[in-house]
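[recover] target loaded
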C-alpha cells in the first residue's frame, strides 16, 4: 500500500478536470473523450465500496470528468449506448432527462439519463507503398 500511495503522490500533477454536475433536467454533457477512461475505487454515501468509471470529455465549455458509478442510471445509459466500451477520440453525449420515482417515501428520486456514443474512426491505413 505504501508504494501505491507514494506512486500516487509523486505522479499527482493536480491537473484534473472538474466533475460535470447534472443539476437540472435537460442538461447535457457532450463532446470528445480525451485520454483513456479509467476506473476509480471509492466509497458511496453509505461508506460502502463503489467503483466508478471516469471519462474525461472535452466539451464546448471546456474539459470535464464524467463519473459513472457502478449500478447507477447514468452508467446503465452509457453502457446501452456503448456496449463495446468507450475509447479516447470517441464522441459521447449524456443527457439528464428527468427524475424517476423515489424508491421509498422521503428518498430522493433517481435521475434518469439518455446517452449516445460514436466510436472513434479507425485510422486510415496507407497501403500505397506496400
Amino acid at each position: 500500500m505504501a508504494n501505491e500511495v507514494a506512486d500516487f503522490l509523486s505522479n499527482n500533477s493536480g491537473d484534473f478536470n472538474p466533475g460535470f454536475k447534472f443539476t437540472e433536467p435537460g442538461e447535457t454533457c457532450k463532446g470528445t473523450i480525451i485520454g483513456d477512461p479509467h476506473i476509480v475505487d471509492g466509497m458511496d454515501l453509505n461508506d460502502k465500496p463503489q467503483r466508478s468509471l471516469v471519462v474525461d470529455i472535452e466539451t464546448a465549455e471546456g474539459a470535464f470528468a464524467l463519473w459513472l458509478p457502478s449500478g447507477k442510471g447514468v452508467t446503465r445509459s452509457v453502457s446501452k449506448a456503448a456496449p463495446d466500451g468507450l475509447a479516447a477520440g470517441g464522441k459521447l453525449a449524456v443527457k439528464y432527462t428527468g427524475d424517476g420515482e423515489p424508491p421509498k417515501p422521503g428518498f430522493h428520486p433517481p435521475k434518469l439519463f439518455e446517452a449516445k456514443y460514436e466510436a472513434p474512426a479507425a485510422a486510415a491505413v496507407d497501403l500505397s507503398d506496400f
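[recover] notes: The chain has two helices and six strands.
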